[in-house]
Amino acid sequence: MCHMKVPLLDLYAQNEPLKAEMLAAITRVFDSQRYILGPEVEQLELELATWLQVKAVVGVSSGTDALLTALMAAGVGPDAEVVTSTYSFFATAGSIARLGARPVLVDIDPATYNLDPAAAAAAVTSRTRAIIPVHLFGLSADLDPIVEAGATVGAAVVEDAAQAIGARYKQRLVGGIGTLGCFSFYPSKNLSGLGDGGVVTTRDDEVGNRVRLLRVHGASPKYFHEVVGGNFRLDAFQAAVLRVKLPHVADWTKLRRRNARRYGELFRAAGVTSRGVVLPSEPDGYFHVFNQYVIRAPRRDALRAHLHARGVGTEIYYPRPFHLQRCFADLGYREGAFPHAEAAASETLALPVYPELSEAQQSYVVDAVSEFYA
User: Fold this and answer.
1) pTM of this structure
2) Residues 256 and 354: beta-carbon distance below 8 Å
3) Domain 248-373 belongs to what topology?
4) What is the pLDDT of residues 216-245, one digit of tens each?
5) What does the alpha-carbon distance between residue 331 and residue 226 come to, in Å, rounded to a whole number?
6) What is the pLDDT of residue 3?
7) Per-domain residue ranges for the chain?
8) What pairs with residue 86 in β-bridges?
9) Is the domain defined by 12-247 classed in CATH 3.40.640.10?
10) Cβ neighbours of residue 240 under 8 Å, at least 6 residues apart?
């Protein structure tokens, strides 16, 4: 094989064509001297509300703070329980613990890596204040039974859509199906800023107003505090950059989906699936946006080392489920408690799928994987 560099993500390829437009937007903010919240954030919120088909969008400082603020708005606090997946980015469970609540962890669907809705329903109790389904890797969780489970005890459904902007479940956009939705604009996301940022979404104006209150230390008006909130404000520079990039997200999503289809064709033609490699799936009625393209691979760590030697960037999302993290040892879970999540943690590997990925680069990745299993 020839040697080619294929990064896991190429931010330069996406941002360079928009550089002049983004710099003009940044200059606009500089000239306004409005750096925190202000008109840029307000316009982004309005544009996203239209795009995501929700009533309220509230800009916040990060995807993590979106989760934290959403849980606070849902009334989560000490002695509450929040049901969620054991297999996600740490912020999902960390936000629960930071509020003094107990993360009640459940296993995943092994085909989608998302929260198992039957397991979530079985974990709901009278102390459950919220359920957090995670739309992992860009694929929606199975939301209808989760929403139904939450309704049985009056629990909010807080969608962790950090990786899934534009994803759909039964023709409905994620982030507007549960009580609240949480999105991240971290640079690796499908809609990304030049730093941290996020939003909370909701179909309920009253809930949206509570989130707005919480993001400014619970003050209304300034210096008069109704509740204890936090400093969760989105800065205007990030909002201005995101407004430049938002009109391109639909096209970038089409390219990610094209790349995912192409991987499927190439991997099957190479016979890799007959070697035990499992490709991502898209159930009927779902629309996957492929923030990550995650395969399940025998001898995953050796494959990753092989791809690294061939110049192919990869990542493991995520190598250790929450129930096996040291900081959650007091929850009392043990190895073997959630076998599907534990298997995913030891077998999954993310491959490059960013929109600008070329056909030649994808062929190189597939050849490198095929070479390993040959």
Assistant:
1) 0.96
2) yes
3) Aspartate Aminotransferase, domain 1 (3.90.1150)
4) 999 999 999 999 999 999 999 999 999 999
5) 33
6) 87
7) 12-247, 248-373
8) none
9) yes
10) 22, 25, 26, 28, 29, 40, 44
